[in-house]
Design goal:
Strand order of the largest sheet: 6-5-2-1-7
Order of helices and strands: HHHEEEEEEHHE
Structural class: alpha/beta
Low-confidence stretches: none
Largest sheet: 5 strands, mixed
Oligomer: single chain
Number of helices: 5
Length: 192
């Protein structure tokens, strides 16, 4: 057995063998969260921008909603990118018990602000949407400025997993969706 821990996880859990991705993130995330092709939920053509009032249709049942209805605790760390223009589209309203991460498509690793896209010709960011880093429904971007987001994600994952082991064995099953942004623009590596 080369990977005993992974093999044990697989034998005691659920193994997903197929998932179809799209060349853009919002459609792929929509497919993962619903189990449907992105075209069946209306998100096949584009990513959700900061100035768009759109998202994964509220009538769609998400994977964390389904799992939570079956006794799972559900957590998301990292990138959501499935709508945020009203609280109804926020991860905490779509089945997740906890959320640490950002709503838009791209987020600075250090100052946690979201930008629309980079104009390569002029080498400047177009459409800065401001601070976008959340702990549940509280924007904590300014408080966490200067801390690399990958460090924040790792610490939160350790906290969530650690809390499961410190609770009684009857705490119930857990679903942790870790959607890290690396490697995703804007690429802002550590100085070293």
């Amino acid at each position: 057995m080369i990977t005993p821990v992974i093999d044990t996880l697989a034998s005691e859990g659920v193994i997903f063998e197929n998932h179809y991705v799209h060349p853009m993130c919002s459609p792929t995330r929509a497919a993962f969260m619903t189990g449907k092709y992105a075209s069946n939920v209306g998100l096949q053509h584009h990513v959700i921008l900061g100035n768009q009032a759109s998202g994964l249709p509220l009538a769609e049942i998400t994977l964390p909603e389904l799992l939570r209805s079956r006794g799972y605790s559900t957590h998301i760390i990292g990138k959501w990118h499935l709508g945020f223009h009203t609280w109804d589209y926020h991860p905490n309203s779509r089945g997740f018990d906890s959320f640490l991460g950002y709503n838009l498509g791209a987020n600075d690793y250090w100052n946690h602000s979201s930008a629309g896209w980079l104009d390569e010709e002029r080498r400047q960011v177009k459409h800065n949407y401001g601070y976008d880093f959340w702990l549940n429904k509280v924007n904590v971007a300014e408080q966490l400025e200067g801390i690399h987001s990958m460090d924040l994600y790792a610490k939160e994952a350790e906290r969530i997993i650690g809390s499961r082991f410190s609770q009684e064995a009857h705490a119930g099953p857990m679903f942790l969706y870790l959607a890290v942004q690396a490697p995703h623009s804007p690429l802002t590596p550590r100085p070293e």
